[in-house]
Amino acid sequence: MTNNLPGFHLKKTYPAAKARAGELVTSHGTVSTPLFCPVATQGTIKTLTPREVRDLALPMILVNTYHLYLRPGIDVVEKLGGLHKFMAWDGVILTDSGGYQVFSLARLRRVRDEGVVFRSHIDGSEHLITPELAVQFQESLGADIIMVLDVCSAYDSSFEKVEQDTHRTHHWAERSRKAQQSGDQALYGIVQGGVFPGLRRQSAEYLASLNFPGYAIGGLCLGETKEVTLAMVEESVTFLPENKPRYLMGVGSPEDIVESVARGIDLFDSALPTRLARNGSLFTPSGRINIRNAGFGRMERPVDPDCGCYTCRTFSAAYLHHLFSAKELLAYRLASIHNLAFISQLMQRIRSAILDDTFDSFKDEFLSTYRPTDEQVRLEQKQKWLKQRA
Amino acid sequence: MTNNLPGFHLKKTYPAAKARAGELVTSHGTVSTPLFCPVATQGTIKTLTPREVRDLALPMILVNTYHLYLRPGIDVVEKLGGLHKFMAWDGVILTDSGGYQVFSLARLRRVRDEGVVFRSHIDGSEHLITPELAVQFQESLGADIIMVLDVCSAYDSSFEKVEQDTHRTHHWAERSRKAQQSGDQALYGIVQGGVFPGLRRQSAEYLASLNFPGYAIGGLCLGETKEVTLAMVEESVTFLPENKPRYLMGVGSPEDIVESVARGIDLFDSALPTRLARNGSLFTPSGRINIRNAGFGRMERPVDPDCGCYTCRTFSAAYLHHLFSAKELLAYRLASIHNLAFISQLMQRIRSAILDDTFDSFKDEFLSTYRPTDEQVRLEQKQKWLKQRA
Fold this sequence. Notes:
Two copies of one chain form a homodimer. By secondary structure, the first copy, chain A, is an alpha/beta fold. The first copy, chain A, folds into two domains: 8-269, TIM Barrel, CATH 3.20.20.105; 277-369, no CATH class. Helix content of chain A is 43%, strand content 19%. Chain A contains 16 helices and 16 strands. Chain A has helices at residues 50-55, 65-70, 74-79, 83-86, 99-104, 131-141, 159-179, 197-209, 226-238, 254-261, 272-278, 310-314, 317-325, 329-355, 359-369, 374-389; strands at residues 8-14, 19-26, 29-33, 35-38, 60-64, 92-96, 107-111, 116-119, 126-129, 145-147, 186-191, 215-217, 246-248, 267-270, 281-284, 287-290. In chain A, the strands form five sheets. The first copy, chain A, has a six-stranded parallel β-sheet. A three-stranded antiparallel β-sheet of chain A has the order 1-2-3. In chain A, strands 7-8-9 form a three-stranded antiparallel β-sheet. Chains A and B meet through α13 and α14 of A and α13 and α14 of B.
């Protein structure tokens, strides 16, 4: 079954085969790439309404099938008119297959050729997910872009283990392709292969041969170094077709986005901007600051005087600091608005730079002023991953 | 020092000396009464932005001096340009004196003629508040309407104790009046007297003789029965001047508001609508429902199909149920919007009915369809009070 949507149009690559600006055509509108998708894990971008997300010029979001499957249930969302209606979001929705969550959040996984048996992280109940079910669930939800079920290897797995996982991912990708019933969704393949360049290439080439309308790159940012991540992105992208969108899963720090766009990535998703926000960690042009620090307690100016978001236009850093000190729910909301606005503005600047043939200098300037916190972010991701696997 | 603002204009009383519609002129605009003020305890209406509160047609809010005094500190708010600027609220602000909080939230109270020594509920630090300091704090915050420091008796205190507390309240009211430095604020006296009609009358008459620009009625809804509350409201109002606004402190259930307007009350404040909202308890024309109940899990229609609020216009009851089940922060926000919209619409209907000479029939109809939950509310208030005093 092939997808009948026009799909993806490249407007510009700069330099050739590297940073790209494009347009992605979906059942819920055409969006410009490179694009960042905020994460609505349980059917809501935490603390925000759909119209606030829209106002941030973020036209596409990711929702986790795994979470909605467990609560409120795929059948409930379907009965209520599908995911768009359920969460009152008329923009584009991308769902993941549940693969990553099953391998990180869920307990007692038994991976077989058929699929994965796992226990719910909510109530411990046992469930089976197969490639066919993952497609069926995502079609029932009515997402615009859906993902194949993949096997996500731990970052420290052996070559043999990752090779086995990658082959299973390929087999499942084929089954997912065959399982598609509806032509309204674009089903993306997921490149795996861990931190092994040869497996990444194999995976990209194999999936490319299946002619998916788009390709995700999975299994990264789980604890490996920044250099390894970027090398794996490059290795995967090199063997993917140029005329199809490339989506780097789970990446959302400003510096990683810029570096990955430079390597030919078109789509991103990550809960990082909103998760950091709820911890008081805010993006500024010079790097991350933590608004909880006492130094902000009397600061009259906004967090970022040059930022055009509602939070920075309206409130002092001192007020934000107060809301965090007092554990007021508005704190998490105002911080989420700011961090998503920062990323949204970054994506617009990236796209303009690509279209203006100035991406290289934009990238150099951005990375020289934005204080890198990569290692910090990576450490957090590693800790989160290890905790989830425990 | 007298207040130089025009103050309060009665538009209509219906019937004479009972339900009233008026206009209250303040430094931050003229507002129509009867009016409900949502509570921004720590300088924010929990979960909501100032513009959302404005959009709910709620032009006046209450902020707790006690909380801001402890965190971030009166001096910090003053340095940042005052309370309006601090919280980006350009509407009317009413602050309380801190009296009620000192007698409920704070620990180790020693009440002397000079004032009250108390320990912070946050860090246990010891503080002294006097009538003069309470006025000074509220002037520094820059509120539009401010309150005298009063002694708040427990609902089960003896006549002798309440009499002593009430006399001290009167003495403090005089000192507060003298302590006023700025003419921009309207300082209201607070009628006390517990559940004793004679003391209520004494208190109202005494405060009226001091010629305040407005009068609050305090020390009610702390555990006494509904009948006693309303009798005390009536007893207090009877001896207050007709041409001054009357503010019933801490009342916010729909049925109590309607009954109190019928007894001549113009202003209300309460954290009840937003606190109930965060517990999933939502106002509907037929009474309170709890959206957490499983029955709402598949309900396609909104919580109240006739309500015009953003929540009811946009989301199904099932989606709200899901957000509460998943403990998503958006749940508390959407529920708060709905409950405040319900109260705001109620106040508008009350005012229209008074102006149209139909308030009696409006009241009868409202109270016959709105399932009374007074005893439930009262029990909650009593438990909260007892817990705080413990």
